[in-house]
Write a structure and sequence with these properties.
By secondary structure, the chain is mainly α. Helix content is 35%, strand content 0%.
Length: 57
Amino acid sequence: MESNFSFGKIGIKNIFKKDTVFTNKCKICGLKFEDPERTKKHMIKAHSKPKREKQDH
């Protein structure tokens, strides 16, 4: 029995990928923006990299 339904690489990713919805407020630091697209840019720039630990001299 051969199935007519097949999963491609893109199909599997789309099933398990959670769509992120950006609002006008950053969920991490609470900053408010006029545009959800601006919030997205802020999230990438400000919160995508891990913070460096402070060095005590």
